[in-house]
UniProtKB/TrEMBL annotation, chain A:
This is Uncharacterized protein. It comes from Acidisoma cellulosilyticum.
Automatic annotation (TrEMBL), chain B:
Gene3D superfamilies: Amidase signature (AS) domain. It comes from Acidisoma cellulosilyticum. This is Asp-tRNA(Asn)/Glu-tRNA(Gln) amidotransferase subunit GatA. Pfam families: Amidase. It comes from the Bacteria. SUPFAM superfamilies: Amidase signature (AS) enzymes. The gene is gatA. Residues 26-445 form the Amidase domain. Its EC number is 6.3.5.7. Keywords: Ligase.
Length: 64, 465
């Protein structure tokens, strides 16, 4: 699954929530970062089973 | 004053000191002259402590003369990356946020170097908070590569890479969260060891990402890294990540041969996942032949794609870094340089679920690498895709555009060294990595030493104009 790049509105919302002043320059920086983040998260997801079942197995293995 | 040979290694200089042929004062003055002549171009130092260094050198000389020789670091001039606290000496992380900060306590690893007799010549430049760079909007300019001052040094331990390569110091400290020791080691043609996670205390070092940060030595060769590591390594109850393990004699371990050592080549990292440039690939294959000739049993190794290690490491690093800098990024963002602020701000967009997913993926990647290490003693890959690029060509998001070959060892915590494995057509150094089992730093140093001894690469030094 390819992770989508965050939209301008989502980035603005996250910036406000994080308390980052949403100036034009700051939003542009975040937009560039969001593009790279989408690629990273897509790579991260590639071989990771995100199902609850796999989490149960993972949890059991970790506590072994 | 006795004459100091040009570009002495720690091993050579300490032999001369032990034999009384040169003194720590001779050696320190030699380095101070080189700094005066070259650092106006290289910008490797951001705080210079020449006077204190000379005083310490005089004391070391007196100690040695009175029979109190401490060992191979006694009287050896070193530099300290400016994210390591030094009591009474400004420690800034090359950031306006900490421009006037003077710590009251020295970082544990630096204390240990000083206790072994090392002479600190000053603080070496770094990318801001060991993350953003190269940058031209920080309090101090970026370091320049001694092999070609138009080239990038690599980072973030940029000043240490430049100063060691140019012979301004005999060794220095670096920190490594995604490759910050090994990358400048490769681009500057020196040897840099990222030790096993927890082997060297990080107390008193400005953190970037708690679970990925490592501290280690950078020097001209593996033998000097072994000497530095001997002093730096060891349990520190005040570093929560510190490991209580026995510390072997790293230098003595170099004497054991490497015949029979099982070396796994992770070719897919630099051939399929992120193709390195032809000159780099050719140098790497030549190095594989050298290891084979030394008696190593070389075969292919296969792990998950490089991009997955990189993604896992980057998501963790950016989340943890953001957690540290959240308040300042919110309240005074303009105090950061552009590159550091832009990179760190990505952390504001990472969810807790993604951070935990990255930690879970990390567990799998650690297990995968550990399984591979049942078959191999050392894994081999390139350090960088090419020679050092032009410094003006490195963008703020460069390390996210293409996966770093260095990040896997931060994810796994494995001891990994970068050694010079040749030179490009432009005469610039090329680097490769050797990675071992956790806490088997001695084997990594041993293989690196055997390789360096079998090749001529350590005989060439940059000529800084």
């Amino acid at each position: 699954m390819t992770r989508p790049v965050l939209s301008e509105a989502e980035i603005r919302g996250l910036a406000l929530r994080a308390g980052l002043e949403p100036t034009e320059g700051r939003l542009a920086e975040l937009a560039e970062g969001a593009r790279h983040l989408a690629v990273m998260l897509t790579d991260l997801d590639r071989d990771l089973d995100r199902s609850v079942e796999s989490a149960v197995i993972f949890s059991a293995e970790r506590s072994r | 004053m006795n004459t100091v040979p040009n570009f002495p290694t720690i091993a050579e200089a300490s032999d001369l000191i032990a034999r009384g042929e040169i003194t720590p004062v001779d050696l320190t003055q030699h380095c101070l002259s080189r700094i005066a002549a070259q650092d106006g171009v290289l910008h490797s130092f951001l705080t210079f402590t020449g006077e204190q260094a000379l005083q310490a050198a005089e004391q070391a000389t007196a100690e040695i003369r009175s029979g109190q020789y401490k060992g191979p670091l006694h009287g050896i001039p070193v530099g300290i990356k400016d994210i390591f606290d030094t009591a009474g000496v400004r420690t800034t992380g090359n950031s306006r946020l900490l421009e006037e900060r003077v710590p009251s306590e020295t970082a544990e690893s630096v204390k240990r170097l000083e206790a072994a007799g090392a002479i600190v010549l000053g603080k070496l430049t770094t990318h801001e908070f060991a993350l953003g760079g190269p940058s031209f909007d920080l309090p101090w300019p970026p370091a320049r590569n001694p092999w070609d001052k138009a080239r990038f040094t690599g980072g973030s331990s940029s000043g240490t890479g430049a100063a060691v390569a140019a012979g301004l110091v005999l060794a220095g400290t670096g920190s490594d969260t995604g490759g910050s020791i090994r990358n400048p080691a490769a681009y500057c043609g020196i040897t840099g060891l990222k030790p096993t996670y927890g082997l060297v205390s990080r107390r008193g070092v400005i953190p970037l990402a708690f679970s990925l940060d490592h501290v280690g030595p950078m020097a001209w060769n593996a033998e000097d890294c072994a000497i530095m590591l001997q002093a730096m390594a060891g349990f520190d109850a005040r570093d929560p990540g510190s490991a209580s393990v026995a510390i072997p004699d790293y230098r003595q371990a170099l004497a054991t041969g490497v015949a029979g050592l099982r070396v796994g080549i992770i070719r897919h990292f630099h051939e399929e996942d992120r193709a390195a440039e032809p000159a780099m690939l050719a140098a790497f294959e030549d190095a594989v032949h050298v290891l084979t000739a030394l008696g190593c049993k070389v075969s292919e190794a296969r792990l998950s794609p490089l991009s997955q290690y990189a993604a896992c490491g980057n998501v963790i690093m950016l989340s943890e870094a953001y957690a540290i800098h959240e308040q300042d990024l919110r309240d005074r963002p303009d105090m950061y340089g552009y590159a550091c602020r832009a990179r760190m701000s990505i952390g504001a967009m990472i969810t807790a679920a993604d951070y935990l997913r990255a930690q879970r993926r990390r567990t799998e990647l650690v297990a995968e690498t550990a399984a591979a290490m049942h078959q191999f003693d050392v894994l081999l890959t390139v350090t960088a895709a090419s020679e050092a690029p032009e410094i003006t060509q490195v963008g703020p998001f460069g390390s996210y555009e293409k996966p770093l070959y260095t990040m896997p060892a931060n994810v796994t915590g494995s001891p990994t060294i970068s050694v010079c494995c040749g030179y490009s057509a432009n005469g610039l150094p090329l680097g490769m990595q050797m990675s071992g089992r956790p806490f088997d730093d001695a084997t990594v140093l041993r293989l690196a030493h055997a390789y360096e001894t079998a090749t001529a690469w350590r005989g060439k030094r940059p000529q800084v104009m």
